[in-house]
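A further point concerns the way the authors explain their paired sequence and structure data. Since the whole study asks how a given chain folds, the encoding of that fold should be made plain. A single example would do more here than another paragraph of explanation. An entry of this sort, consisting of the sequence and the corresponding backbone structure tokens, reads as follows:

_____
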Amino acid sequence: MSALICIFTAALLLCTGCNSSSEASIQEKNAEKAAPTPASFLALGEFSVEYLDDGYVKVRDGAKREFLLVPRGKPPLEGFPKSRIVETPVRSVAAYGYFDISILKVLGVIDDVLVGVTAPQDEWVIPEVVQGMESGKIAYLGSYNSIDFEVLKKSSPEMVMTWDHSVIPILEDLGIPCLITSTPVAMCLNAKMKFVNFLAPFFGRETEASEYFGQVAGVLQEIAEKAAQTNEHPKVMWGDIYEKRVLVEPGNAWVGELVGLAMGDYVFDDVFGASCIEISMERFLTGGEDAEILFTYRTPMTGATSKEALAKTNPSMSAIQPLHAGKVFAPLPHYAQSGHKLDEILLEIAAIVHPDLYPDYERKYFTELPEKDA
């Protein structure tokens, strides 16, 4: 496990080191309104950003499609269909995902550009979204699987950010570029923290992205240093049993990597694939035999009010150790909309894995379930 910390810390330094000249060039571009020279390339998991000459940028989205970002007032370069050309900085955007919208907040553009979302007003806790919906500036487009494209068109977004590949042809017919912000494989920790660098060039906010990345990287360094002080490796699982499916976070997901960095033992480390990947009941129960900590997907609003209540959602849940001899943590309702606080979330998970290393920590994003409801 110590080797894992050394490797991961080295990887962080390597990522920062390899991109240091790129980030410096980006900051100079923001400050001096000049294009970075020479052109720089950033690989961000499945995503990529390539800075070309004269302010043009080429990006690859989660569907492996290339887009050309064109500074306003300049002609597009050849070789890109109209649906893959985006004028920058983007002035209006509709977005499906909570994390994408949280990153708009990180970049400082959420008030200026967000015009459409796929969750109703009463489900939002991000102040800028609540206020925008109250004023009518931000429209509710319908749920993600039943978008009202007339409302979307009326909102006039210059770009839509989504995980739903099926809407690409519809949006192309409407003349609206569609950016896929999810990938078939779960985001690793490095991709999660650097996703901000993928969205930054759409809005000319590379400086803000660099600051955010540095802040998150600093917290990871702190977690690694604290973790080196312990010889305890608590077994951790992240997932849940539903009526017809068993879903977990795979070992390649950011949460699995974080547990390892924090000197925990992630019981689904051998599982690879998408976030919320389906596994067999047997595999889930085997992982839970000696697990000490369970992170459930369910919130207190969706049934996770106590260990007893969670067990009632599916009788098989009661067989795993965290429900009778360990600890269970549920995300609070605002957790899903707190991507702009990724550094705090990472620290909180580390504090849950090793509470002895963080004796004065007060949780903000997860709640520990009591044995029974009051």
About this structure: The chain has two domains: 2-207, 229-368. Residues 182 and 347 are 24 Å apart (CA to CA). Confidence is low (pLDDT under 50) at residues 1-39. The first strand starts at residue 41 and ends at 44.
